[in-house]
Amino acid sequence: MAVREHPPGVDTRHRLLEAAEWLFIERGYEALSMRLVTARAEANLAAVNYHFGSKEAMLQELLAQRLDRLNEDRLRLLDACEADGHVPDYETILGILFAPALQLGRSPAGGPAFLRLLGRVYSDASPFIRDYLQRHYRPIFERFFEAFARALPQTPRNELGLRLHFALKALSGMLAADDMNDLLAELSMGQSLGDAELLARLVSLVSPALVAPLGNPRQVNLIEQLLRQSNQLAETAQPGSTEPDRSRGKRTVSVRAPR
Prior knowledge:
With 259 residues, this protein is mostly helical. Helix content is 67%, strand content 0%. Helix 1 packs across helix 2 (34-41), helix 1 packs across helix 4 (55-81) and helix 4 (55-81) crosses helix 5 (90-105). It is globular and about 65 Å long.
């Protein structure tokens, strides 16, 4: 590993947090080891124990530094949009979730890696991260869920929860990817986008999942036919082979798209 030079005055505690953040973004919580953190920070394990006590405590401090400010900004913006009894629409609420993140990513308080950190936090499957988010930010999640429920009263609450989980997980996975900048460049079609245009593109990716029609019997019937055809094709394949047995009679199911 190449030796990294640190600016004068950057103390060990800050270097450890900076290293932990970079490695968490790149590898996720479970693959984050203190050996890697100390090597990147040019420190030793005793420094981790002295400043934080454990890997868990260090990550908790990192997440608090990054997420507390973000969620405070989100709540202030939601309060402003709900002033005087106004009910913001679902696209506005999606914008409220991501506008402060974009702004923090442009500021010294957040830095250019902030969006990737946010994506990693929301897509990381480790029990530690899930438990931390639930314990520290559950009231905020509930506040935004209620805002979405008011904006989409026709959607059953359990269905709305599933759709929000799916949509935000998908977007978070994109933000956490190591090729995020390339993806955003493709999203902008090579153009230089301001924050408003970029946020509008991100919202346009997520919002259809929230308002798509609920599954109907015709769609269920189509999927059932596809599953039957898939099973029949699997049954006609020779054992140990991925190719169908051409010597057997072919049985197919005609699948018609729903109208």
